[in-house]
Design brief:
Blueprint (H helix, E strand, L loop, with lengths): L2 H21 L7 H19 L3 H24 L11 H30 L4 H31 L7
Helix pairs in contact: 1-2, 1-3, 2-5, 3-4
């Protein structure tokens, strides 16, 4: 991946990070770590898809927009109380609402697929979910390895 693409991805991430900072408090997450992880995600996927600087800018703007729309739909259908405390009628209504939520999410996918096609080839669009899964697997693997190393060397790195 060339330097121009990295800087563009980092710039997009920083702009996105400003929105995240308004939604997440420092008590919830370590923001520098979250921002670093998101930067790594952007860099990994940009590289894996072989995006040009122009494609990358347009693509990540659409991804961010899509993820916000997904979040709105998911929030709209959140149950008012825990499922374990619902009556049968409430649980039935909740289940039926999840069918509509799934349909809304499918419609959103179709809408954004058309918009992604204006920016990327279908082959790159198809590779995107695979690249995301690969990145998540790599993050989990590294976290697991770090956890194992910390258990094998419990005093290391502590003062």
């Amino acid at each position: 991946m060339n330097a121009k693409t990295r800087w563009l991805g980092l710039g997009i991430l920083l702009l996105t990070g400003l929105g995240l900072q308004a939604q997440i408090t420092e008590d919830d997450f370590n923001l520098p770590s979250l921002a670093r992880l998101e930067a790594q995600r952007v860099a990994y996927i940009t590289d894996r898809l072989g995006l040009t600087a122009q494609e990358s800018g347009q693509f990540w703007a659409l991804v961010n927009e899509y993820e916000l729309e997904q979040e709105k739909i998911n929030d709209k259908y959140k149950p008012g109380k825990p499922v374990s405390q619902m009556t049968d009628d409430e649980a039935d209504a909740y289940i039926r609402a999840t069918f509509q939520k799934d349909q809304d999410l499918l419609n959103l996918k179709k809408e954004y697929y058309a918009r992604f096609q204006e920016v990327l080839s279908p082959a790159k669009i198809a590779l995107f979910p695979m690249a995301e899964k690969e990145f998540k697997r790599e993050v989990v693997r590294r976290a697991r390895d770090r956890w194992i190393r910390s258990r094998l060397n419990p005093g290391r790195g502590r003062n």
